[in-house]
Specification:
The protein is an alpha/beta fold. The chain folds into 2 domains: about 5-165, 3-Layer(aba) Sandwich (Rossmann fold), CATH 3.40.50.620; about 175-265, Alpha-Beta Plaits (2-Layer Sandwich), CATH 3.30.70. The protein is about 45% helix and about 15% strand. The protein is built from 10 helices and 7 strands. It has helices at about 5-20, 30-40, 60-70, 95-115, 135-140, 145-150, 155-165, 190-205, 230-235, 235-245; strands at about 20-25, 45-55, 75-80, 120, 210-215, 220-225, 250. The strands form 2 sheets. The chain has a 4-stranded parallel beta sheet with strand order 3-2-1-4, sandwiched between helices. It has a 3-stranded mixed beta sheet with strand order 5-6-7, with helices on one face. Helix 1 packs across helix 2 (about 30-40) and helix 4 packs parallel to helix 5 (about 135-140). The longest helix is centred in the middle third of the chain and has 19 residues, at about 95-115. The relative contact order is 0.13.
Length: about 270
């Protein structure tokens, strides 16, 4: 089995062979690490391309802009209204495919306009195996996934990020706000904002890793079991706040936080 250092060298070698790349950059753990390494290897022969949308909180876009400015990395930002993409708002099980296909087609167009042959994105080895229809779109569009080429897992990326003093090393895992919806439930701007406000409220009260899943007018909070005692102690405040945001019912999922929990509903 390759060591962490060997995997990092494999990543650098692969990027150097591509010579110049446009990096799909969201400011998450994986894409930040990939962008940083690509910048170290390729210098100015990289371009960060960031999609702004209703599906990601504004703070994520601000973080992406701040990182590129701080690292002196050229960045292109474009806006996509996913709710206007045919079929997306109806939230079918292949919702992620529909979205990724649209977004990465646009990223490829921007890359070509700027003179970049290759587009790279930050999927890692942990992304293999789960229900991820978006990966089909990435494969169809021939987008490169260097972290998978290097066989890097999330925990390893976090460890390397700490060694590189990246601000995202311990950043909670992030997924777009559409992942909070059960398949088949229509996605609207109002519902997206309701979920975003609920999660910002929890984050502002010191909770770190969690999701607020939406089922009609019911909010199902997934949080780490270690935080159960704290959230129960705040139940009246949390319930009142989320109801003020538009939810009729507020519940705590006793299974706790788990990434991709909505995928059980696609079968």
């Amino acid at each position: 089995m390759a060591t962490l250092e060997e995997k990092l060298e494999r990543l650098k070698k692969y990027l150097s062979e591509l010579k110049s790349v446009a990096v799909a950059f969201s400011s998450g753990v994986d894409s930040t690490f990939l962008l940083k390494v690509a910048h170290e290897v390729l210098g100015n022969e990289i371009l960060a391309v960031t999609c702004a949308s209703n599906l990601f909180p504004k703070r994520e876009l601000d973080a992406a802009k701040d990182f590129c400015a701080r690292e002196n990395i050229r960045q292109k930002v474009f806006f996509v209204d996913e709710l206007k993409i045919d079929g997306f708002a109806q939230n079918p099980p292949n919702r992620c495919y529909i979205c990724k296909r649209n977004i990465f087609t646009k990223i490829k167009e921007i890359a070509a306009q700027e003179g970049f042959t290759f587009v790279v994105e930050g999927s890692n080895m942990d992304d293999i195996g789960d229900y991820r229809p978006g990966m089909k779109a990435i494969a169809e569009l021939e987008i490169k996934s260097p972290l998978q080429v290097a066989e890097l897992y999330k925990a390893e990326i976090r460890e390397l990020s700490r060694k590189m003093n990246l601000p995202t090393a311990d950043k909670p895992s992030m997924a777009c706000l559409a992942s909070r919806f059960v398949y088949g439930e229509n996605i609207t701007v109002e519902k997206l904002h309701r979920v975003e406000r609920a999660e910002e409220f929890l984050r502002g009260n010191g909770f770190n890793q969690f999701r607020v899943r939406i089922h009609g007018n019911l909010a199902r909070i997934e949080i780490l079991p270690d935080d159960f005692e704290k959230i129960i102690s705040m139940r009246a405040e949390i319930s009142a706040c989320l109801k003020n945001f538009g939810f009729d019912y507020v519940t705590l999922d006793l299974q706790g936080f788990r990434s991709g929990s909505m995928n059980i509903f696609h079968e």
